Write a sequence for this structure.
């Protein structure tokens, strides 16, 4: 793609999300979402094969439907409150419709079906942008309307998302689909605590973005999109096998790595609000997530995965230099002692 | 009839939307879009927005739809699909028409309609003058406000249109 046009389109993606996060008028938020959607389509379609076109079409259709639902909720809110300012949505109909629209944008169950298919059809870098940056805008709106969201719907979607994210990822060998299901599960964790303490949603979002960025960059560094291909990294860059191990265990939520921080805080907040069964179920279902992360680490760093001899040498012209990778790896594994600093997110 | 003109125009609006949503060939979709654009213009004009109605005709129908018609005419097939040529298209159109007729009867008969939100019968569509801005028309003041207080909206929409063109060029360019 022409570099100038690519820069313009990337800046528009950023601008769209910024407009969503900074506006006080519901119409501007809708405009921001549409601008974001419009500009990310050519980024998803960077390579011109039918796969990417199908993935972009699916993404566009689901997100456009979600934007339409969001507009309907905005208009119902306007009819009943007479104003356009962003605040909690007082009318229950508008609140439910808006929650469904934002759940469709995030990829929460029962609107999660597009996430694995779209993530699989696009390149690793586009998948990175899709699973991290695109989650910021809907989550910021959910944060702003959080006092008025129907708790039953929210918690149902959250728990089902954690279940689907864990269960659906079990049968996958393609790394992008694994990251997609991990994204669904993490979104479930984020929305579960939204009604109780939205600061923890922001904390979980921060840690999730760091870990997902790290994982995708490690995949890009070793140019691997399948488990088998990832298992050959011991031959090319043995250091990254250890880093993959640490980051994946952090994503699974194991102490003393930083992925444990959001899960710990969320479970603590939920139990403080006298719900015991819910966090127990969530913690148990997070084990499904941990299982397929551990399978990845087993095949990558803990064993020399069986393959034919000519596949053992990976052919690559030059090592990609990813400047941001070391700080990201450090942040996604060693942040746990900084837990008291989450008060800055208030 | 004039008190319920907005209601009648809204019904024709919905029917023409059903007409192109039942997916005949794009040429016929464009034909129905002309009708729906004209009827939408009528609805806006009945609320006193003469400027915006003329804007719909000029820019939407006279600009965008003309370009759409030309591009569709370049890409059309030898026997384009009409509503009656394909059973599926006709079925969807009749289904949409049936649902609209049932909804209209429901609205006409009952005092209050509560589908997603409440309409109080047909009265909501009648024109009554409640605006007390007698000196300046509200709608032309809105357009003026767009270019003064709403400068940010103009910038954002202008940028979106530019990026829309770039995106479409990028997507259709291929390799």
């Amino acid at each position: 793609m022409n570099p100038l046009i690519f820069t313009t389109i990337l800046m528009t993606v950023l601008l769209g999300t910024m407009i969503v996060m900074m506006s006080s008028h519901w119409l501007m938020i809708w405009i921001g979402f549409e601008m974001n959607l419009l500009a990310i389509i050519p980024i998803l379609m960077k390579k011109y094969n039918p796969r990417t076109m199908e993935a972009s079409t699916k993404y566009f259709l689901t997100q456009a439907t979600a934007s339409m639902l969001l507009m309907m909720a905005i208009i119902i809110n306007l009819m009943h409150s007479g104003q356009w300012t962003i605040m909690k949505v007082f009318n229950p109909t508008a609140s439910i419709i808006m929650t469904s629209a934002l759940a469709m944008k995030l990829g929460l169950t029962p609107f999660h079906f597009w996430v694995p298919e779209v993530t699989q059809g696009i390149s690793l870098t586009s998948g990175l942008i899709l699973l991290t940056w695109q989650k910021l805008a809907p989550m910021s709106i959910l944060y702003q309307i959080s006092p008025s969201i129907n708790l039953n719907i929210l918690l149902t979607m959250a728990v089902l998302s954690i279940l689907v994210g864990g269960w659906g990822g079990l049968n996958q060998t393609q790394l992008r689909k694994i990251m997609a299901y991990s994204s669904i599960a993490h979104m479930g964790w984020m929305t579960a605590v939204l009604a109780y303490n939205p600061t923890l949603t922001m904390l979980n979002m921060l840690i999730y973005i760091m870990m997902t960025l790290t994982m995708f960059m490690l995949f890009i560094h070793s140019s691997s999109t399948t488990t088998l291909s990832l298992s050959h990294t011991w031959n090319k860059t043995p250091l990254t096998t250890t880093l993959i191990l640490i980051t994946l265990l952090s994503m699974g939520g194991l102490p003393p790595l930083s992925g444990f921080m959001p899960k710990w805080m969320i479970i603590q907040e939920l139990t403080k609000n006298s719900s015991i069964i819910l966090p127990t179920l969530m913690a148990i279902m997070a084990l499904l997530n941990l299982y397929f992360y551990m399978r990845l680490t087993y095949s990558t760093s803990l064993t020399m995965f069986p393959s034919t001899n000519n596949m053992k040498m990976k052919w690559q012209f030059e090592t990609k230099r990813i400047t941001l990778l070391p700080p990201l790896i450090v942040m996604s594994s060693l942040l746990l002692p900084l837990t008291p600093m989450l008060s800055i997110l208030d | 009839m004039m008190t319920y003109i907005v209601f009648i125009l809204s019904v024709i609006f919905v029917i023409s939307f059903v007409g192109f949503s039942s997916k005949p060939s794009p040429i016929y979709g464009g034909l129905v879009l002309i009708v729906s654009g004209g009827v939408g213009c009528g609805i806006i004009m009945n609320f006193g927005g003469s400027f915006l109605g003329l804007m719909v005709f000029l820019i939407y129908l006279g600009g965008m739809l003309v370009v759409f018609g030309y591009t569709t005419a370049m890409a059309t097939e030898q026997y384009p699909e009409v509503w009656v040529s394909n059973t599926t298209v006709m079925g969807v159109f009749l289904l949409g028409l049936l649902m609209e007729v049932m909804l209209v009867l429901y609205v006409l008969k009952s005092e209050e309609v509560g589908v997603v939100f409440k309409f109080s019968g047909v009265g909501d569509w009648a024109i009554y003058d409640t605006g007390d801005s007698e000196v300046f028309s509200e709608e032309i003041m809105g357009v003026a406000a767009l270019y003064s207080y709403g400068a940010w909206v103009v910038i954002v929409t202008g940028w979106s249109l530019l990026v829309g063109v770039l995106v479409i060029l990028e997507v259709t360019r291929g390799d």
About this structure: The CA atoms of residues 70 and 98 of chain A lie 5 Å apart. Chain A has a mean pLDDT of 91. Residues 50-81 of chain A form the longest helix (32 residues).
